[in-house]
Amino acid sequence: MERVGIVGYYQVKLYSNANYGRYEMIFEAVRGALDSAELKKKDITTVVSCTNDYYDGRTISNAFTVEVGGAYLEDESKVEMDGAHAVLYGLMRILSGNHKLAVIWGGSMASCFPYHSARLYETDPTWERPVAYVNDITASGFQMRAYMEKYNVDIEEIAKISVKNRKNASKNPLALEEAQNANLSVNDILNSEIYADPVRELMVAQPCDGVAALLLAPEKQALKITDKPVWITGVGYNQETYYLGDRDLSISNSMELAGKMAFDAAGIKEPKNEINIAELFEAYAHEELIFSEALGLAEKGKGSELNSEIDGDLPINPSGGAQGGNPPCATGLIRIIEAAKQLRGEANGYQVKGAKKAVASGQIGMCAQNNIVYVLEGGD
User: Fold this and answer.
1) Sign of the CA dihedral 81, 236, 359, 234?
2) In this structure, which CATH number among 3.50.50.60, 3.40.50.11240, 3.40.50.720, 3.40.47.10 belongs to the domain 4-113+208-225?
3) Which of 14, 107, 202, 203 has the fewest CB atoms below 10 angstroms from its CB?
Protein backbone atom coordinates (compact mmCIF):
# COMPACT_ATOMS: atom_id res chain seq x y z
CA MET A 1 0.00 0.00 0.00
CA GLU A 2 1.30 3.43 -0.92
CA ARG A 3 1.99 5.94 1.80
CA VAL A 4 -0.09 9.11 1.92
CA GLY A 5 1.69 12.43 2.11
CA ILE A 6 0.80 15.98 3.03
CA VAL A 7 2.01 17.99 0.06
CA GLY A 8 0.65 21.47 0.74
CA TYR A 9 -1.20 23.57 3.29
CA TYR A 10 -2.35 27.05 4.14
CA GLN A 11 -3.91 28.72 7.17
CA VAL A 12 -5.70 32.06 7.16
CA LYS A 13 -4.63 34.33 10.02
CA LEU A 14 -6.96 34.01 12.99
CA TYR A 15 -9.17 36.92 14.05
CA SER A 16 -11.57 37.47 16.92
CA ASN A 17 -13.76 39.35 14.45
CA ALA A 18 -12.56 39.14 10.86
CA ASN A 19 -13.16 42.10 8.59
CA TYR A 20 -13.90 39.91 5.57
CA GLY A 21 -16.28 37.07 4.81
CA ARG A 22 -16.17 33.34 5.36
CA TYR A 23 -16.27 32.54 1.64
CA GLU A 24 -13.27 34.76 1.02
CA MET A 25 -11.46 32.94 3.82
CA ILE A 26 -12.27 29.54 2.32
CA PHE A 27 -11.06 30.61 -1.11
CA GLU A 28 -7.87 32.06 0.38
CA ALA A 29 -7.12 28.86 2.30
CA VAL A 30 -7.75 26.44 -0.59
CA ARG A 31 -6.05 28.64 -3.17
CA GLY A 32 -3.13 29.13 -0.79
CA ALA A 33 -2.74 25.38 -0.25
CA LEU A 34 -2.71 24.75 -4.00
CA ASP A 35 -0.22 27.57 -4.55
CA SER A 36 2.06 26.20 -1.84
CA ALA A 37 2.36 22.98 -3.88
CA GLU A 38 2.40 24.78 -7.26
CA LEU A 39 -0.80 23.00 -8.30
CA LYS A 40 -3.95 24.08 -10.12
CA LYS A 41 -7.64 23.59 -9.47
CA LYS A 42 -7.77 20.99 -12.27
CA ASP A 43 -5.44 18.77 -10.20
CA ILE A 44 -8.06 18.34 -7.45
CA THR A 45 -9.95 15.03 -7.52
CA THR A 46 -11.83 15.19 -4.20
CA VAL A 47 -12.66 17.81 -1.59
CA VAL A 48 -13.61 17.16 2.03
CA SER A 49 -14.87 20.14 4.00
CA CYS A 50 -15.49 20.50 7.72
CA THR A 51 -18.31 22.79 8.79
CA ASN A 52 -21.16 22.59 11.29
CA ASP A 53 -24.82 23.28 10.59
CA TYR A 54 -25.40 24.68 14.09
CA TYR A 55 -22.43 27.02 13.80
CA ASP A 56 -23.42 28.19 10.32
CA GLY A 57 -27.09 28.55 11.18
CA ARG A 58 -28.39 26.40 8.32
CA THR A 59 -28.68 22.80 7.24
CA ILE A 60 -26.28 21.43 4.63
CA SER A 61 -23.82 24.13 5.61
CA ASN A 62 -21.42 23.17 2.81
CA ALA A 63 -24.03 23.94 0.14
CA PHE A 64 -22.62 27.37 -0.70
CA THR A 65 -18.94 26.51 -0.23
CA VAL A 66 -18.52 24.14 -3.18
CA GLU A 67 -17.18 26.71 -5.65
CA VAL A 68 -14.91 28.65 -3.31
CA GLY A 69 -13.64 25.38 -1.78
CA GLY A 70 -12.43 24.06 -5.13
CA ALA A 71 -15.09 21.33 -5.40
CA TYR A 72 -17.03 22.51 -8.44
CA LEU A 73 -17.60 19.46 -10.69
CA GLU A 74 -15.46 17.36 -8.35
CA ASP A 75 -16.19 14.67 -5.78
CA GLU A 76 -17.19 16.50 -2.57
CA SER A 77 -18.28 15.68 0.99
CA LYS A 78 -18.61 17.33 4.38
CA VAL A 79 -17.52 16.13 7.83
CA GLU A 80 -19.37 17.77 10.71
CA MET A 81 -16.73 17.23 13.42
CA ASP A 82 -13.24 18.71 13.73
CA GLY A 83 -10.99 19.36 10.76
CA ALA A 84 -8.70 16.58 11.96
CA HIS A 85 -11.56 14.13 11.40
CA ALA A 86 -12.00 15.48 7.87
CA VAL A 87 -8.35 14.60 7.21
CA LEU A 88 -9.16 10.98 8.09
CA TYR A 89 -11.94 10.99 5.49
CA GLY A 90 -9.54 12.44 2.91
CA LEU A 91 -6.88 9.90 3.87
CA MET A 92 -9.30 7.02 3.29
CA ARG A 93 -10.27 8.43 -0.10
CA ILE A 94 -6.63 8.55 -1.17
CA LEU A 95 -6.03 5.01 0.15
CA SER A 96 -9.02 3.78 -1.88
CA GLY A 97 -6.94 4.37 -4.99
CA ASN A 98 -9.68 6.48 -6.58
CA HIS A 99 -8.14 9.89 -5.95
CA LYS A 100 -4.79 11.55 -6.63
CA LEU A 101 -5.23 14.83 -4.79
CA ALA A 102 -7.53 15.49 -1.85
CA VAL A 103 -8.24 18.97 -0.54
CA ILE A 104 -9.31 19.10 3.10
CA TRP A 105 -10.48 22.39 4.50
CA GLY A 106 -12.29 23.40 7.65
CA GLY A 107 -13.25 26.48 9.58
CA SER A 108 -15.94 28.85 10.76
CA MET A 109 -16.51 32.36 12.00
CA ALA A 110 -17.19 32.23 15.73
CA SER A 111 -17.79 35.99 15.72
CA CYS A 112 -21.04 35.30 13.86
CA PHE A 113 -22.66 32.81 16.22
CA PRO A 114 -22.88 32.15 19.99
CA TYR A 115 -20.35 29.30 20.18
CA HIS A 116 -21.03 28.16 23.75
CA SER A 117 -24.80 28.40 23.27
CA ALA A 118 -24.57 26.27 20.13
CA ARG A 119 -22.63 23.65 22.05
CA LEU A 120 -25.51 23.35 24.49
CA TYR A 121 -27.11 21.15 21.82
CA GLU A 122 -24.53 18.50 22.70
CA THR A 123 -26.26 17.97 26.04
CA ASP A 124 -29.14 15.70 26.99
CA PRO A 125 -32.32 17.33 25.61
CA THR A 126 -34.62 16.18 28.40
CA TRP A 127 -32.81 17.15 31.59
CA GLU A 128 -29.57 19.03 30.94
CA ARG A 129 -30.40 21.31 28.03
CA PRO A 130 -33.43 23.10 29.51
CA VAL A 131 -31.58 23.85 32.76
CA ALA A 132 -28.23 24.58 31.03
CA TYR A 133 -26.17 23.90 34.16
CA VAL A 134 -24.16 21.28 32.31
CA ASN A 135 -22.43 22.76 29.28
CA ASP A 136 -18.98 22.82 27.74
CA ILE A 137 -17.81 25.52 30.18
CA THR A 138 -19.01 23.92 33.42
CA ALA A 139 -17.83 20.52 32.16
CA SER A 140 -14.31 21.93 31.81
CA GLY A 141 -14.44 22.88 35.49
CA PHE A 142 -15.42 19.31 36.41
CA GLN A 143 -12.57 17.99 34.28
CA MET A 144 -9.89 20.30 35.68
CA ARG A 145 -11.00 19.75 39.27
CA ALA A 146 -10.99 15.95 38.81
CA TYR A 147 -7.46 16.05 37.44
CA MET A 148 -6.13 18.37 40.15
CA GLU A 149 -7.63 16.35 42.99
CA LYS A 150 -6.66 12.92 41.68
CA TYR A 151 -3.00 13.80 41.11
CA ASN A 152 -2.60 16.59 43.67
CA VAL A 153 -1.69 19.12 40.97
CA ASP A 154 -1.66 22.80 41.96
CA ILE A 155 -3.56 25.32 39.87
CA GLU A 156 -0.30 27.22 39.37
CA GLU A 157 1.08 24.28 37.37
CA ILE A 158 -1.86 24.46 34.98
CA ALA A 159 -1.52 28.23 34.71
CA LYS A 160 2.07 27.67 33.54
CA ILE A 161 0.70 25.84 30.49
CA SER A 162 -1.29 28.94 29.53
CA VAL A 163 1.77 31.13 30.06
CA LYS A 164 3.86 28.86 27.84
CA ASN A 165 1.31 28.54 25.04
CA ARG A 166 0.49 32.23 24.87
CA LYS A 167 4.20 33.01 24.83
CA ASN A 168 4.58 30.53 21.96
CA ALA A 169 1.62 32.13 20.18
CA SER A 170 3.43 35.48 20.28
CA LYS A 171 6.01 33.94 17.91
CA ASN A 172 3.36 32.67 15.51
CA PRO A 173 2.18 35.40 13.10
CA LEU A 174 -0.99 33.44 12.27
CA ALA A 175 -2.14 33.14 15.88
CA LEU A 176 -4.99 35.19 17.29
CA GLU A 177 -3.68 38.64 18.19
CA GLU A 178 -5.52 38.64 21.54
CA ALA A 179 -3.78 35.37 22.45
CA GLN A 180 -0.27 36.58 21.61
CA ASN A 181 1.36 37.61 24.86
CA ALA A 182 4.95 36.88 25.76
CA ASN A 183 4.74 38.77 29.06
CA LEU A 184 1.92 37.00 30.89
CA SER A 185 2.64 35.67 34.35
CA VAL A 186 1.07 32.88 36.36
CA ASN A 187 -0.63 35.53 38.51
CA ASP A 188 -2.11 37.14 35.39
CA ILE A 189 -3.68 33.81 34.48
CA LEU A 190 -5.00 33.17 37.98
CA ASN A 191 -6.39 36.68 38.33
CA SER A 192 -8.35 36.51 35.09
CA GLU A 193 -12.10 35.95 35.22
CA ILE A 194 -13.42 32.64 36.54
CA TYR A 195 -15.17 30.66 33.81
CA ALA A 196 -16.12 27.56 35.83
CA ASP A 197 -14.04 27.17 38.94
CA PRO A 198 -11.16 26.36 38.82
CA VAL A 199 -10.94 27.28 35.10
CA ARG A 200 -9.88 30.88 34.45
CA GLU A 201 -10.55 32.88 31.31
CA LEU A 202 -6.92 32.86 30.19
CA MET A 203 -6.87 29.05 30.44
CA VAL A 204 -9.52 28.82 27.70
CA ALA A 205 -8.87 28.40 23.97
CA GLN A 206 -10.79 31.39 22.63
CA PRO A 207 -13.20 30.67 19.76
CA CYS A 208 -12.33 32.82 16.76
CA ASP A 209 -12.64 33.21 12.98
CA GLY A 210 -10.42 31.15 10.73
CA VAL A 211 -10.09 28.60 7.93
CA ALA A 212 -7.28 26.20 7.04
CA ALA A 213 -6.65 23.74 4.22
CA LEU A 214 -4.21 20.96 3.40
CA LEU A 215 -3.54 18.65 0.47
CA LEU A 216 -3.08 14.87 0.52
CA ALA A 217 -1.63 12.72 -2.24
CA PRO A 218 -0.57 9.06 -2.66
CA GLU A 219 3.14 8.35 -2.45
CA LYS A 220 4.08 8.40 -6.15
CA GLN A 221 2.08 11.54 -6.75
CA ALA A 222 3.35 13.19 -3.57
CA LEU A 223 6.98 12.70 -4.60
CA LYS A 224 6.25 14.32 -7.95
CA ILE A 225 4.67 17.33 -6.26
CA THR A 226 7.26 18.06 -3.58
CA ASP A 227 10.63 16.90 -2.35
CA LYS A 228 9.43 17.52 1.23
CA PRO A 229 6.27 15.47 1.75
CA VAL A 230 5.12 14.78 5.30
CA TRP A 231 3.95 11.19 5.63
CA ILE A 232 0.96 10.13 7.69
CA THR A 233 2.32 6.94 9.22
CA GLY A 234 -0.35 6.33 11.82
CA VAL A 235 -3.83 7.48 12.78
CA GLY A 236 -6.04 6.49 15.70
CA TYR A 237 -9.45 7.58 16.91
CA ASN A 238 -11.79 6.73 19.75
CA GLN A 239 -14.96 7.97 21.38
CA GLU A 240 -16.08 7.36 24.94
CA THR A 241 -19.48 7.65 26.54
CA TYR A 242 -21.22 11.01 26.54
CA TYR A 243 -22.41 10.97 30.16
CA LEU A 244 -19.86 12.79 32.27
CA GLY A 245 -20.87 10.86 35.40
CA ASP A 246 -19.83 7.62 33.72
CA ARG A 247 -16.34 8.88 32.90
CA ASP A 248 -13.18 9.43 34.93
CA LEU A 249 -12.55 13.01 33.87
CA SER A 250 -9.07 13.05 35.41
CA ILE A 251 -7.84 10.99 32.46
CA SER A 252 -8.76 10.64 28.79
CA ASN A 253 -9.54 7.08 27.79
CA SER A 254 -10.42 8.13 24.26
CA MET A 255 -7.06 9.86 23.81
CA GLU A 256 -5.18 6.92 25.28
CA LEU A 257 -6.88 4.42 22.97
CA ALA A 258 -6.58 6.71 19.95
CA GLY A 259 -2.89 7.17 20.68
CA LYS A 260 -2.31 3.44 21.03
CA MET A 261 -4.01 2.84 17.69
CA ALA A 262 -1.93 5.51 15.96
CA PHE A 263 1.36 4.44 17.54
CA ASP A 264 0.77 0.78 16.70
CA ALA A 265 0.13 1.71 13.06
CA ALA A 266 3.31 3.81 12.97
CA GLY A 267 5.42 1.19 14.76
CA ILE A 268 6.16 3.45 17.70
CA LYS A 269 6.96 1.58 20.91
CA GLU A 270 8.09 4.37 23.24
CA PRO A 271 6.32 7.63 22.34
CA LYS A 272 8.20 9.71 24.91
CA ASN A 273 11.53 8.75 23.33
CA GLU A 274 10.49 8.61 19.67
CA ILE A 275 8.24 11.67 19.26
CA ASN A 276 10.04 15.00 18.80
CA ILE A 277 7.09 17.38 18.93
CA ALA A 278 3.37 17.34 19.73
CA GLU A 279 0.59 19.66 18.58
CA LEU A 280 -2.39 18.85 20.80
CA PHE A 281 -5.84 20.44 20.59
CA GLU A 282 -6.24 21.62 24.18
CA ALA A 283 -9.58 23.38 24.52
CA TYR A 284 -8.46 24.26 28.07
CA ALA A 285 -4.95 24.43 29.50
CA HIS A 286 -5.37 21.41 31.77
CA GLU A 287 -6.19 19.22 28.76
CA GLU A 288 -2.63 19.55 27.50
CA LEU A 289 -1.46 17.76 30.64
CA ILE A 290 -4.19 15.12 30.48
CA PHE A 291 -3.52 14.44 26.80
CA SER A 292 0.27 14.33 27.07
CA GLU A 293 -0.10 11.77 29.86
CA ALA A 294 -2.68 9.74 27.92
CA LEU A 295 -0.27 9.56 24.96
CA GLY A 296 2.59 8.36 27.13
CA LEU A 297 4.62 11.53 26.66
CA ALA A 298 4.64 11.93 30.45
CA GLU A 299 3.73 9.79 33.44
CA LYS A 300 0.18 10.00 34.78
CA GLY A 301 -0.15 13.03 37.03
CA LYS A 302 3.31 14.31 36.10
CA GLY A 303 2.69 16.14 32.86
CA SER A 304 3.57 19.43 34.54
CA GLU A 305 7.08 18.10 35.20
CA LEU A 306 7.75 17.65 31.48
CA ASN A 307 9.80 20.43 29.88
CA SER A 308 7.52 21.14 26.94
CA GLU A 309 9.03 24.49 25.89
CA ILE A 310 10.10 24.99 22.28
CA ASP A 311 13.69 24.18 23.27
CA GLY A 312 12.63 21.65 25.91
CA ASP A 313 12.85 17.88 26.13
CA LEU A 314 9.58 17.36 24.24
CA PRO A 315 8.03 20.53 22.82
CA ILE A 316 4.23 20.61 23.01
CA ASN A 317 2.26 23.22 21.09
CA PRO A 318 5.20 25.36 19.95
CA SER A 319 2.71 27.21 17.73
CA GLY A 320 0.65 28.21 20.77
CA GLY A 321 -1.80 25.36 20.32
CA ALA A 322 -5.52 26.00 20.52
CA GLN A 323 -4.77 28.68 23.10
CA GLY A 324 -3.28 30.60 20.21
CA GLY A 325 -6.72 30.58 18.57
CA ASN A 326 -9.59 28.13 18.34
CA PRO A 327 -11.61 28.46 15.10
CA PRO A 328 -14.34 25.79 15.40
CA CYS A 329 -14.00 23.02 12.79
CA ALA A 330 -10.41 24.08 11.97
CA THR A 331 -8.46 23.79 15.23
CA GLY A 332 -7.42 20.13 14.90
CA LEU A 333 -6.65 20.62 11.22
CA ILE A 334 -4.35 23.49 12.18
CA ARG A 335 -2.59 21.21 14.66
CA ILE A 336 -1.77 18.84 11.77
CA ILE A 337 -0.59 21.72 9.61
CA GLU A 338 1.59 23.09 12.42
CA ALA A 339 3.15 19.66 12.98
CA ALA A 340 3.83 19.36 9.25
CA LYS A 341 5.47 22.80 9.28
CA GLN A 342 7.84 21.63 11.99
CA LEU A 343 8.81 18.50 10.06
CA ARG A 344 9.46 20.56 6.93
CA GLY A 345 11.46 23.16 8.85
CA GLU A 346 8.97 25.91 7.97
CA ALA A 347 7.87 27.01 11.45
CA ASN A 348 9.72 30.30 11.25
CA GLY A 349 10.21 31.87 14.67
CA TYR A 350 9.19 28.79 16.65
CA GLN A 351 10.99 25.96 14.87
CA VAL A 352 11.91 22.90 16.92
CA LYS A 353 15.41 21.74 16.02
CA GLY A 354 15.77 18.30 14.52
CA ALA A 355 12.05 17.42 14.46
CA LYS A 356 11.55 14.14 12.58
CA LYS A 357 8.41 12.63 14.11
CA ALA A 358 5.35 14.42 15.43
CA VAL A 359 1.90 13.78 16.81
CA ALA A 360 -1.10 16.01 16.22
CA SER A 361 -4.60 15.69 17.61
CA GLY A 362 -8.17 16.88 17.18
CA GLN A 363 -11.18 16.58 19.48
CA ILE A 364 -14.91 17.08 19.76
CA GLY A 365 -17.50 16.69 22.52
CA MET A 366 -17.75 17.52 26.19
CA CYS A 367 -14.40 17.13 27.95
CA ALA A 368 -12.86 15.82 24.71
CA GLN A 369 -15.26 12.90 24.42
CA ASN A 370 -13.84 12.01 20.99
CA ASN A 371 -10.15 12.23 20.13
CA ILE A 372 -8.23 11.60 16.92
CA VAL A 373 -4.42 11.32 16.75
CA TYR A 374 -1.99 11.42 13.82
CA VAL A 375 1.63 10.35 13.67
CA LEU A 376 3.52 12.35 11.07
CA GLU A 377 7.05 11.80 9.77
CA GLY A 378 9.28 13.94 7.61
CA GLY A 379 12.07 12.93 5.28
CA ASP A 380 11.85 10.66 2.25
Assistant:
1) negative
2) 3.40.47.10
3) 202
